[in-house]
Amino acid sequence: MAEEHNPLAESGVTIHSDSEQYEAGDDLSTSPDDSPSSPPMILYKPPTTWSLIRGVAINLLLPFINGMMLGFGELFAHEAAFRSFLCQGEGRTP
């Protein structure tokens, strides 16, 4: 079977694949901060008691306070609307 002509193979661009085995030092650059004496960067810290308390307060306490404020606002709006619109024709205020 004859090989097909692939125009992309003639381009001068070489892109390394993830499965390609690299030689030592090939395309690998080290930053100046990577010295043997520097400690490794910690990416994960286990949760502390204080962080758990803050998480509970934010996720449970704030929605409760928000719901109470919405409820009281709705009651106040209902009373204000009732007093201003419905009681005007009676000549008295409840």
Please, could you describe this protein's structure?
The protein contains one helix and no strands. The radius of gyration is 35 Å and the shape is elongated. It is 40% helix and 0% strand. It has 94 residues and is mostly helical. The protein has one helix at residues 49-86. It starts with 48 loop residues before the first helix and ends in an 8-residue tail after the last helix.
Overview in brief:
The protein is an all-alpha fold.
Largest sheet: none
**Could you spell the SSE succession in H and E letters?**
H
- Radius of gyration, taken over Cα atoms and rounded to an integer in Å: 35 Å
Output mean pLDDT. 76
Q: What topology does this entry show?
A:
Elements: H1 49-86
Task: Describe the structure using short key phrases.
94 residues; mainly alpha; single chain; elongated; 1 helix; 0% strand
